Amino acid sequence: MDHEKLPEFNLEQIKTMPASRVVIIFNGYVCDVTEFLKLHPGGGEILLKYNRQDATKEFEKIGHSSDARELLKEYVVGYVANTNINELEVDKNLSVFHQKLLHIKNKLMTHEDPFFFHKIFGLLILVHIFMRSSVMVFESSDTLFGNSYFGLTMETMFPVWLMLLFAICHGFLSLSSLIFHVPKHANQNKPMIHSMFRAHSICFALRAVLVMIVDLIIADPQIQQFIICLIVISCFYSSDIISDRLTASDDRYKTTDSMPYWPDCSPIRQNIHKLSYAFAQYLASVICIFGTYESVFFTLPAIQGAAFLMTLTRKNLISPYAYHQIYTFLLFYAVPFFLIIAPIKISLVIAIAAVCLYLRTIKVNKYLIWGPILLVATYKAIPDDLVLDYYLYYYFSATIILLCAIFMYLSNKLERKQLNGKGGSRLDLNNRVLSCNKISTDGYELIIRTKMPIYLNVGQHILIQVNDSLSRKYTPIWHKYLPETDQTLIALRIKKYTNEHYMTASSYLASRKDGSVLALFGPHGSKYYCVKNKSIIDSVNNKAYELTKNNIYLISAGTGITPIYQLAKNIISNQSKHVKLITCDRTFEHQIMKDELIELKKENPKLLNWTCFLSGQNTSVPDGFPGELRTERLSGIHLNEITQAIGSSIVILCGPNGWQDMICENLKMGDAANAKLNILCW
After folding, report:
1. Whether residue 515 is found in the same domain as residue 538
2. Are residues 314 and 195 both part of a single domain?
3. What is d(CA 108, CA 317) in angstroms, rounded to the nearest whole number?
4. What is the CATH number of the domain that holds 614?
5. Is there a single domain that holds both residue 408 and residue 480?
């Protein structure tokens, strides 16, 4: 990166930048990472921590990949004066294999766990899972074929003291995860670990651990079952508290409904996964109520494995596709073996879980579902020789009913926060594509409903992330607030660009089906038109350009017309100000806003001066075209009118970077003696 072409900043200038901008220093470069806050896999909190500071040491300590260094280049806005500039490159002396190996090592060996406390427990748990899974395979084989080949059983392999030790290790593994920093916000693009999901994982893992310990140390069956029921019902309410307290105010994430999937995952495949995950949750709860140490244990690999897999996804060590396949396997891999070992019991458990899931889908309160099941479990625990002694059962049952009533009341208060104020229906907690229509040869219009309200100033944009290394800015052609659901409806016009070597953001969006979920963020954009002040605001440089005393030139190329159209429309309607508009496209068919521009010109024939440059061959334009048409490329000669204009002028450009650089150079060359020309690149 040639830093000599970048603006120079001193430390005082960096400190006095607008408070709305988040700026860090890395290797002497100044990086404006405001738009990367919610995209950062480690969470925006770490970027805010180093706002206006040098983050080089922290960046290197974490051990970012070469992709991260390349991504950082997109946010460079200048360099620090009087400092050594180090290029944002990886060590070229290392082979690709060694670079990847070093990246994996740096990601797994974190500075937050210097004594490998969490990793030691993780290895012990992996050994435990392998041992129990192996024994289960042998036991099912013995049951199926009637021969004991190895004589391995749960009883011979695991004495009580070892079972208790492993249960405690499972508990410490979950609790020790609290030493690691995780983001507060859920990632919309990948299933990554975050604070709310981690807390849920700890909650349900400890439920299983406590049930396993109670099964080992409490001999009385009635007391044992009662304590297990208390653990299970307390876990349900604890999960409600976690969702309420740890869900960020600007995030409507739910653990299964909003789980991100891989880009090519169809809506049908997503629904299958969501149904499987929901069923597995109910199955795990039923097993905890009616199961033993051995069966309850097999709920842990998926619970604790999901947190580990999400961490690997966040560190770019596995893909979202791999996460969902491995997680689904961990949820159900033990079920076929249990069907062989205890077919009647496990079939009954599956049936109960299915009924619970169905009742929940028809909006039956979960405490009304689980209350009767807990009462049945408590009744089932009465020993045969105490058939006539029901006093303890009555006491336990009354306690369970009272707790269910209290938790139901409290959880209803929490749940009302997740419902909209008018209809009472549950919100769709995703940024969802409502329609994607082809409007020209390579043009598409997408209507998207956002999960949160987005308030855009004129000329601001949203950011759509395809993956960690691919995101794109788009300016909506219109947006509408939906008060009934507190969401926003936005319309995007995009032009599809394809590349045989890699996926482009536009080709990804053009292939979205109705109902697809997007990772969408906003509003973004440090430059915008302020309707109230009738001026262009540049918040990065803390400047305001008043339009009433300036000539206005708006120049666009390709999809750059979307913010330019918004600016032209609002400046004309708000100020009755004359605007000179120049658009550059290959053909008239490739102009994605042609109908709107023609209408705007016809409505404001005296206020809008539109010149359309078409560089392609054999261009066809409809009769009665209201603007000036030129079948040639825009060049420096055509820009002389701007540089020779009387009075001060504001030129706003939006288009490809190379095209913008060319326009800027031509304007500055022609305006060498004119200091009244302000050029703003959108």
Report:
1. no
2. yes
3. 10
4. 3.40.50.80
5. no
Q: Which residues contact 267 (CB under 8 A, 6 or more apart)?
A: 513, 515, 516
Q: Are 167 and 224 in contact (CB under 8 A)?
A: no
Residue 586: exposure state from Cβ atoms within 10 A (0-12, 13-18, ≥19): middle
Angle at 369 between CA 363 and CA 374, to 5 degrees: 165
H or E element at residue 252: none
CB atoms within 10 A of CB 362: 6
Is 15 inside a domain boundary? yes
CB 310 within 8 A of CB 328: no
Contact 513, 436 (CB under 8 A): yes
Number of structural domains found in the chain: 4
Distance CA 184, CA 197 (A): 10
Per the CB < 8 A criterion, the answer to whether 657 and 636 are in contact is: no
User: What pLDDT, in 10s, does the model give residues 216-271?
Assistant: 999 889 999 999 999 999 999 999 999 888 877 666 666 666 678 887 787 788 88
- Comparing CA positions, the residue from 398, 354, 392, 358 lying closest to residue 374 is 398
Same domain, 402 and 440: no
Which tokens sit at 382?
Answer: 């009465």
Do 512 and 532 belong together in one domain? no
- Cβ neighbours of residue 519 closer than 8 Å, sequence gap 6 or more: 187, 188, 189, 260, 431, 464, 465, 466
SS3 612: strand
DSSP per-residue string spanning 292-349: -HHHHHTTHHHHHHHHHHHHHHHTTSS-HHHHHHHHHHHHHTTHHHHHHHSHHHHHHH
Residue 115 is assigned to a structural domain of this protein:
no
Q: Of 204 and 411, which is predicted with more confidence?
A: 204
Note whether 640 and 612 are same-domain residues: yes
Write 154-157 long-range contacts (CB < 8 A, 24+).
154/294, 157/131
Is 319 in the same domain as 448? no
Q: Tell which of 108, 124, 143 closes a domain.
A: 108
Range of the domain at 602: 528-681
Residues 6+ positions from 371 with CB-CB distance below 8 Å:
400, 401, 404
Helical (H) or strand (E) element with 625: none
> What digits encode the pLDDT tens for the residues 489-543?
999 999 998 888 788 899 989 988 888 888 888 888 888 999 888 899 888 777 8
Which CATH number fits the domain that encloses residue 436? 2.40.30.10
CA distance 330 to 305: 8
- In a domain, residue 153? The reply is no
Let me know whether 505 and 562 are in one domain: no
CATH classification of the domain holding 35: 3.10.120.10
Mean pLDDT confidence for 79-100:
61
Q: Picking from 84-98, 109-123, 149-163, 383-397, which range would have the lowest pLDDT averaged per residue?
A: 84-98
Alpha-carbon distances, residue 107 vs 195, 311, 330, 401, 533 (angstroms): 19, 10, 24, 48, 49
